[in-house]
Write a structure and sequence with these properties.
Length: about 300
């Protein structure tokens, strides 16, 4: 565990301690400003709370149903979630602006953070750097970042990758893709929809450096890499309907631009960790959004020279 992470944990512990009082055996959280606080006040895990609130792409949350799943009071749940929403507006709503990532301009509405300024409720672990020598003799280096709190989106992750001196990993060969997947072949890196829900437990894995510029023809037009390399290789997930790796009876061949636009991508989008890719909504994992379309538990940074 690096010192930054330890510091983040200590600060988080202090925040939780200072805002929590115990009264008559019921846990009361005085200042509820994040979904983690709300979960704590309800005595459930953050993941349980997010899952109970359901798919944010399908309209507003059904507090009665969610409360039923969690075994808590619907009134209390609704009140807490409104507090979370109210407490987050300022930090989340950003006027559209141009964010330049690896020399490419994106119009975004997301706040980005440097490593130094990451909010204390973003908990992460930077993993050991590994290298791969390509056929042409060039060596690239890869660093996986596990975000246990699941709350950084693609742009926020890409900004951190750039600040570290690299870019979100861009697998341009099967060999490179296999190496990258070996770094995250673990369920902890994949956020899954509810198995009982309408997305059949399909999971979203760590972010990679592919994106579609605004105005690309959907679902598969215009894909390119943050590295600037040509898009000659792809490994999109293919519909299997095998009831194991693909439990979704619908055709979920990727990219499918499902929902309200999916211009970014990562490993997934099947029921088990897979080396295939899915295109995702850009708000997945957005810091501060209580009802983003899912979480993202990490990303991989690629470096063209040894960052150590
Ligand atoms: Ca690469
Ligand atoms: Ca399917
Ligand atoms: Ca998709």
């Amino acid at each position: 565990m690096n010192s930054k992470l330890v510091t983040a944990f200590i600060i988080l512990a202090m925040v939780l301690t200072s805002t929590t009082v115990f009264a008559g055996g019921t846990q009361e959280v005085k200042e509820v400003s994040s979904i983690a606080d709300a979960a704590m006040a309800l005595g459930v895990t953050e993941d349980e709370l997010r899952k109970a609130l359901g798919d944010p792409n399908q309209g507003g949350p059904d507090f009665e149903a969610a409360a039923g799943k969690l075994g808590v009071s619907a009134d209390k749940l609704e009140k807490l979630m409104k507090q979370v929403g109210a407490g987050m507006e300022e930090s989340v709503e950003v006027e559209p602006y141009t964010l330049t990532l690896n020399g490419i301009d994106f119009e975004v509405i997301y706040e980005v953070f440097s490593w130094e300024d990451l909010p204390e409720d973003v908990e992460y672990e930077r993993q050991e750097i590994v290298s791969l020598t390509a056929e042409d003799g060039s060596i690239h280096y890869y660093e996986t970042v596990y975000v246990s709190t699941g709350n950084l989106n693609w742009y926020q992750a890409a900004y951190l990758a750039q600040e570290a001196g690299g870019y979100l990993a861009c697998p341009t060969t099967d060999e490179e893709n296999s190496l990258l997947f070996s770094l995250v072949d673990d369920k902890k890196y994949f956020w899954a929809f509810d198995e009982e829900g309408e997305h059949y437990g399909i999971s979203i894995g760590p972010f990679l450096g592919g994106y579609q510029p605004a105005g690309s023809v959907e679902p598969d037009g215009g894909w390119r890499w943050l590295s600037g390399e040509d898009w000659n290789y792809s490994n999109w997930a293919v519909n299997l309907d095998d009831g194991v790796i693909d439990k979704d009876p619908r055709d979920n061949t990727q990219p499918n631009d499902s929902g309200d636009g999916q211009p970014i991508m990562g490993f997934g989008e099947l029921n088990e960790p897979v080396p295939t890719w899915g295109d995702y909504m850009e708000a997945v994992g957005t810091y501060g959004l209580t009802r983003s379309p899912g979480s993202s538990f990490g990303f991989i940074i690629e470096y063209e020279s040894n960052p150590m």
